Known about the structure:
There is one protein chain. Helix 1 links the parallel strand 1 and strand 2 (26-30). This protein has twelve helices and 14 strands. It is of the alpha/beta class. It is globular. It has one domain (2-374): Rossmann fold, CATH 3.40.50.720. The chain has a seven-stranded parallel β-sheet, with helices on both faces. Helix 4 packs across helix 6 (109-132), helix 6 runs parallel beside helix 7 and helix 8 runs parallel beside helix 10. It has helices at residues 13-22, 34-42, 53-60, 78-88, 102-105, 109-132, 180-199, 238-247, 267-279, 299-312, 340-344, 353-365, and strands spanning 2-6, 26-30, 68-71, 92-95, 138-144, 159-164, 167-172, 202-208, 210-212, 252-255, 261-266, 287-292, 295-298, 319-322.
Amino acid sequence: MRILITGGDGFCGWPTALYLSRKGHDIAILDNQLRREWDRELGIESLAPIASMDERTHEWQKHAKGSFTAYSVDMRDYDALARTVAQFVPDAIVHFAEQRSAPYSMIDREHAVFTQTNNIVGTLNLLYIMKEIVPDCHLIKLGTMGEYGTPNIDIEEGYIKIAYKGREDTLPYPKQPPSMYHLSKVHDSHNIMFSCKSWNLRATDLNQGVVYGIQTDETRMHPVLVNRFDYDQIFGTALNRFCVEAAADHPLTVYGSGGQTRGFINLLDTVRCIELAAQNPAAPGEFRVFNQFTQEFSVSALATKVHQVAGDLGISAEISHLRNPRVESEKHYYHAANTKLLDLGLTPHLLTDETIREIIKLALQYKDNIQLDHIMPTVTWS
């Protein structure tokens, strides 16, 4: 297949591009490299230093089994995006190119406006380009389990059957997004659903859980291919952050009571889920939703796991409960369906002590790069 990956220089996009390329697909990555600009803006950097997009691309072209091309394009630039799509003519577009951090979106008004403008306008541009240039292309859009919030009922995969006043209908599952970032993803979902219904486009919305892990088989093939490793308060996710904190002899920072429960997924399964979605495309006019996670954990449970594994490595990893900077329920019901990708053939990499040990050891390898002053939360929701 010919697969265009927007945001292909990012944490999920880069390993996905390499994985699909190694499978023999013709790959084009598209990225405006804003993620690197945000590091400079905030004074942070990936724990594992990452090469430039050009250096990465040049190195991977030595290993690619199909063609592998990179485009530096901002998705808000309709004309440049349209030219790229017309030149590459993809069979599938994997759309990662969005500002992905809830804390970044909550820094202030400017960051909230930027997040929603960047994410929604870029996706809208892509939808119109698909309609006009590649109407048979399959859009694989990375959504988030955060769109659902934490309802007091089971979370279904995108849709829910409702019986009301003697009538029944299947409707989009109600959304309760907890940040300006998550709101942007909800708006994306509505826009994509509308486009499928109105223009007969085909799309798969992958509501992904929190990703852990850093490397894949492909990113390990050469130092220039290493994936980014975020651990700071803005872009670092809980498990990766805990592992870095353990390596730095810093307390594991649990927000509030730690009862917040979410879906989690190994990065290795993220790239496989993209492949499964591409191999089994949605039908014309279909907007389907897959919940892309493999396990559910509370934040406290993750901290406890890291504490125990760190102890086996001779590291005393104290757990510290901080005042929660977010407005969220810390004790709640959480049970979400996640069968559709399993039915397509996903064999999950479940979280093990060995997985945690690998992340801690990678953090120890780059211990001298850890910026402790960027771990503690300063961005608040209230």
